[in-house]
Write a structure and sequence with these properties.
Blueprint lengths: L1 H70 L3 H20 L13 H29 L7 H18 L2 H4 L10 H29 L11 H16 L3 H13 L1
Helix pairs in contact: 1-2, 1-7, 2-3, 2-6, 2-7, 3-4, 4-6, 6-7, 6-8
EC number: 7.2.1.3
Cofactor: heme b
Organism: Bombus impatiens (Bumblebee)
């Protein structure tokens, strides 16, 4: 009987130790969860700030270029191409970024429609800008600025005309893999955007009088901001393109 009492007592003590040790783990687990949530919140805040900065850069560069164009009577070509590339094309790419503060609560279907609408409006502006410059000049598509611009425009027209298969990629799986259609569309889209913005940068450099003051060359500022817009706008599209490349050729 005494041995049984001793065994029971030791069992209770052992159980108590187990309970105490197990209960002591819960505070650590909760603290780990809190740390993880804090990190996620901090990361989400940083991404939101980056996205907000990108939108501000897009609006500011567009507004400054429009102001300069109107002030120097070069409204037509410069204004239309700036609106087409800097504003509409940039926002069309950023639409699909999950951290986009303007479209984060939209459905994927809504984002797709908004994407092609912005792209189509950008295409219209750019075509109008190119046509107006074509009518003014006698020599066409000789400079690097013009060559890059017309190259980007051709790709953009092709993307717009052939964009419908992207919407029905899953229905065409018996003919072609959906990942192939999406990869091709994304690759050409990013290439078109990068080439067009490169042409935009060369366009800024052509305006030698584009200065805020005698000590500040606004051309260089506009080029730097343009590069930042390209990088920030493609922050989601580039990783997606890489993942599609791996799935397609990996």
């Amino acid at each position: 009987m005494e041995e049984e009492g001793i065994n029971a007592t030791s069992f209770q003590l052992g159980q108590t130790k187990v309970d105490v040790s197990s209960s002591s783990e819960f505070p650590n687990s909760s603290s780990n969860f809190e740390t993880s949530d804090t990190k996620r919140s901090a990361w989400s805040t940083c991404v939101t700030i980056v996205d907000l900065v990108n939108h501000i850069l897009i609006v500011c560069l567009t507004a400054f270029t429009l102001y300069y164009s109107v002030a120097h009577s070069v409204f037509n070509h410069t204004t239309l191409c700036t609106v087409g590339y800097v504003l509409l094309m940039s926002e069309a790419i950023v639409v699909f970024a999950g951290d986009n503060i303007l479209t984060r609560y939209f459905t994927h279907r809504t984002k797709k429609h908004l994407h092609w609408i912005l792209q189509l409006l950008g295409l219209i502006c750019i075509i109008a800008g190119v046509v107006l410059m074509y009518r003014v000049k006698k020599v066409h598509f000789k400079s690097n600025h013009a060559i890059l611009g017309i190259t980007s425009l051709i790709i953009m027209i092709f993307l717009t005309v052939t964009g419908y298969p992207v919407f029905v990629a899953t229905k065409l799986r018996k003919v072609i893999r959906p990942i192939t259609i999406k990869f091709g569309h994304n690759f050409l889209g990013l290439s078109c955007f990068a080439i067009g913005m490169a042409s935009q940068c060369l366009g800024y450099w052509k305006f030698r009088t584009m200065n805020i003051s005698s000590k500040v060359d606004a051309r260089l500022i506009c080029i730097i901001v343009s590069v930042m817009i390209v990088v920030l706008s493609a922050r989601k599209a580039l990783p997606t393109l890489f993942q599609q490349f791996v799935k397609l050729f990996g």
